[in-house]
Design goal:
270 residues; alpha/beta; eight-stranded parallel beta sheet; 11 helices; 8 strands; disordered N terminus
Amino acid sequence: MGPQGPDKEGVMKKKWLIGNWKMHGNLASNKALIEGIRAELPEPDPRAELVVCPAFPYLYQLKDLTAGTGIYVGAQNASDHLQGAYTGETSPLMIKELGGSFTIIGHSERRQYQGENDGLMGRKSLAAIDAGLIPVICVGETAEERDSGRTHEVLARQLDAAFGYIRTAHDKIILAYEPRWAIGTGIAATPEIVQAEHEFLRQRIAIRDKEFAARLPIIYGGSVKAANAISLFSMPDVDGGLIGSAALNATEFVAIYRELLQTIPADEAA
């Protein structure tokens, strides 16, 4: 892998742990958090990639703090335009220049609070890919949608909107299943629910491109912590986690990472 992230064909089907710091942090606490992660984990295991996603103003700081550590940096959002008169937006090219290798797209909080829709998620994903970033595309249903039996309808709609823009054969993406009823609630989906939805997502993508679906990492986000991580990550279609509040605690974040490693055969190479 080069300094800007994975760049080999087929390398995407690894395990991934991505920390979403949301609107938390400052210069001092960011430094302390990375130093804490480094103290707990001097070097990430090559079988599982580690990514941290700070708020936009701290991307360049995180580039410096993570230089040579094996930890990658991502953003929490990106514009669907590469440049132009879009006041307040941030181009994925800017994220790339500031040291980012990834960007989260379509997080449930942006859908809920900023009104982002499925089509915008697809356009943002394509712009990120065109800028050389790897988008972490989030999909998931609300409690009402699950209770009314519409989970697969919602997931299919979200996937189809995103993949209407993505050229699957050569693009590199990560898909994150994050049921909106489990985000920030402390309620994690059971491993059986997570596996069932990840399997559905992979099968849905296989309709378009079977080979791409087989190598696509699908990670889970929703109240993951060290206590439940291994049961979630042991599921056959779960390739890691998108971690929220637990990513702000170095000890807990590294503990989740170590649980993820426990689910990977010791001799498994990238």
